[in-house]
Amino acid sequence: MSQIFRKKAINTLKSFLLYAFLFSGILFSQTRVLHLDYIQFENKVLENYPLIHEKKLEIKKQKLKVRDVKTSAILPKFELNLGMGPAPGLNVSVDKKYLQTSGADDSSRWIEESNRNYDFLNWGPTFGLSAKAVQPLNIYRFQAGLNAAKLNVEVAELAHYKHKIKVSLEAQEIYYGYLYAKKMKIETAKAMKDFKDAEEKIEEMLDDEVESINQKDLLKLKANRHKLEKGYNQSMTGFSRALMGAHFYLFLPDSVEFSPADSVLVQSTIELPPLDSLKLVALKSHPDLRRLENGIEARRELIKVAKGELGPDIFLFGGFEYTKTWSPDRESGGKDAFTKDPLNDLYGYGGLGIRVSLNFWSRFQKFKTQRIELNMLKRKEVYAARGILILLEEAWLKYLEAKANLKSSSNSLRAAEAWLKGAAMDYDLDPSLAKEMITPYKETLYTKKDYFEAIFQYNMAIGEVIAATGWTLSDYLSKVSK
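Below the sequence we write its predicted structure tokens.
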């Protein structure tokens, strides 16, 4: 009995572990759904979009150049050499020693002549140290180069923000396009079901030999299904493309699925200030204009650098060398750290230097090139502001057009729905009038398509006006809320 009970317990435990494993696999394999509204979607795209991170690298690159300019100003040339090795012994012996008299006062001194003999049988360690340094003193040129590098960082940051504006507009297009395609997919699927029900109803009436219905009515209804199926296929393709675009821009893994927080495409509630106010904002803070201003200032600083290179380079220089050998038979016995002989030495030097380049015309040509490029940027500044305002005005006109089209589409949709409602009431009273519903049903469906397309165009027109002003959508809303 105990053995049978043991087998049952083991089988029960195995079954439990199997079910637990399968349940955990199902639990962890489920796709996680990410719900985002249009603001959250834009922020998530700007946070995760790969190309945004690539553009950020340009900012880091310019910041590294600023650091390079700073570090190159302090001892740009500094060499330090160390060496160790063996050295032979040295024996110094006095060969001659005599008294020498010279001069009018008959002064005398002792003269020694010595012999230096290297002993290659006795070796000792030797150590050498050599250092050289140069410090430029062209402070004016250094300051101009540093200012130019810092301005280039700001130019890179503004270029990065301009790219964020472009991506922000693309993110809005994907979000609203997803809702538009989803709505069209639902509407066309519902229309296909209604057409199928109408076909079945007419076929029943033909079987019942209703006099007001003939075969032509059924064929006419089936002939109109082609356009409906074509619209459904287009909506499915648009929906799939919008979903793929959302996954790409959000940089989502396969285990995460995007779903908009809005269930249906509705008219945007964002309010825009008057055009004149937007123009003032664009002239003050548009990234293209600010980037051009910083670019001109950076070019002016580079001209200062090029002008400074026409003159001489002034610098401080210095260096020293020290060698010490601990080999036997030396007079000092290796105890004197600063003794001098053929292998022991210590000396240093320093001074103020001036370097003049003989390649003057090449540097002068570089200076002229910088000056020409500055004049080109100044000329661009004259018409850049006007160009920004023209683009803003164009976006504003598209916004007004989209707003008018949306109002017209809304009126048309109400009329089409009233027409379809009247035809449906007649159909309820007389089922033989099913064929009379084809035209109002088609017009209502097409009007709905135009209406939701008008909403899409209106919402995008608002985004284009904000982008032309020089803001991302989230930045604009944060500024308006303040």
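Residues 360-429 form the longest helix (70 residues).
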